[in-house]
Structures are given as C-alpha cells and as structure tokens.
Amino acid sequence: xxxxxxxxxxxxxxxxxxxxxxxxxxxxxxxxxxxxxxxxxxxxxxxxxxxxxxxxxxxxxxxxxxxxxxxxxxxxxxxxxxxxxxxxxxxxxxxxxxxxxxxxxxxxxxxxxxxxxxxxxxxxxxxxxxxxxxxxxxxxxxxxxxxxxxxxxxxxxxxxxxxxxxxxxxxxxxxxxxxxxxxxxxxxxxxxxxxxxxxxxxxxxxxxxxxxxxxxxxxxxxxxxxxxxxxxxxxxxxxxxxxxxxxxxxxxxxxxxxxxxxxxxxxxxxxxxxxxxxxxxxxxxxxxxxxx
Length: 292
Fold this sequence. Notes:
The protein has 292 residues and is mainly alpha-helical. The chain has helices at residues 37-50, 59-76, 83-105, 118-126, 134-146, 152-164, 167-173, 178-196, 220-236, 253-261, 266-273, 277-291; strands at residues 107-108, 114-115. It has a two-stranded antiparallel sheet with strand order 1-2.
C-alpha cells in the first residue's frame, strides 16, 4: 500500500461517506463520527508506514498498535477527531511501543547503539529457547574451588543454613542467637563473594532471603486502610509535650535550691539525685531568683 501524503491532508473534521457508496459492506458502514472500518485500517496502515521510530517492531505489530490506539481514542473523545489527529495518536502509540520493546530487549537505539542491563537478561532468558548449561557448570566448579578456602566457621554457618533452610533452626543448630547468626552469615557470604571475584572488586550481596519467614502479601487497599487508621489515631491522640521528658527525682526543685544556698555544691547535689550539674543548675535557677 502506498502511503498517502499526509501534508496534503486537510486538517478538518471527518465527514460521512456519500450516499452513493456501498453501504451493504459492513466495512463501509459508518461508526462513531462517521468513520468506517476501511478508513480506520487505512489510517493505521499510513501511521505504521510513516512513523519515525528505531526498534525491531515489524509492520504488522505497528499496524495493530496504531489501530488499537485509534479506535480507543475515537470512542473516548467527545469531539469528532480529524484524520491528522488520529494519525498523531497512532504515531505516539507506535513510538511508545517501540521504546517499551527496546527496554525489554535491553537495546538503546540511536546512531551509537549501546546495550542496557536488560540486554543479557533478554538473550539469556526470554530469547533463549533452552537454558544454557554454562551457569550450572560455572557454579558447581566455583563452589568446589571456593569451599575449601573458606574459614571452617563460615563453612559451618553456610552448611547449617543449606541443611535446615530456616534461619531460626540453623541458628539453634550452631548455638547462636538469631540476630547473631544473621550477622555471621552475612560475613560468610561476603567472604564467599570475595573469593568468587578474586583479583576484582567483589559485588555486594543482593536479594532478600525469606527462608523460614511467613510470606506477606501487601495490597494497595490494605496500605491505604492502614494509613487511614494511623492518621485517625494521631488526630484522636492529644499532642505530646515537646522537648525532653523531665526526670522525677523525688525532691522538689525548691529543696534543691535551698541546699545550694546553704552551701552544698552542685556536684554533691547532682550525685545525690542522679542528675547532671547542668540539669540541677537549670532546675534551681528560678528559685534562686525568688530567694534573692
């Protein structure tokens, strides 16, 4: 199909087909604002042929993307769109699909095309018909080479976690508390990574290990409800006094001031009530002015 010259298209509202056209054909029956399926197909094909994009989208995908965008816009708008308006909607939809396709493939389009972090993920997982045995072979060989070089304590911790598959039971097996075991297993993992990336800067441990934990599912609705309950509780709770809480020492400030005026030092008073000298001085200051 030859792409029509869009510059020569008048930017006017669409008009219904003439009465002499073949209305028996369903593809020529007027739809919303008088457009027919034939005209929508022609606009989609024109947009797919004239759009400027850099991606691997073939013509069929571009036409389908344009057709879906055109029909959605046609039935969502309240005013009759022009042909050029529908072409613009289709072009934008194709460009958006092209950007999403490049991001999925991990490819940066342009004159100096570069690869993104997703490039290896795409070719190793999505585009590969069968997983490569390389990863399993490398991991087995690396484990056999690294394991003897680890400290005995690190091997004990890693082995306990592998056997019990639960942090709590593994910690009990090696005689550690839960948090102590988590700290030790983190150091063991870092030591393993340092040997894995020998002569290189080791990567940091990544991911979130949830072995032995109950899976939790958080939904948007649940989060909103919890925020509402929290805000309602904050509104109903009286405001807390600002500043540090005053420690009750069981002795009135006036009595502390009397002892100070009687000749007792601030250090002696502070030791007797368990406060600092600065705190005692601050407390007795108003009473010293009254006695003067």
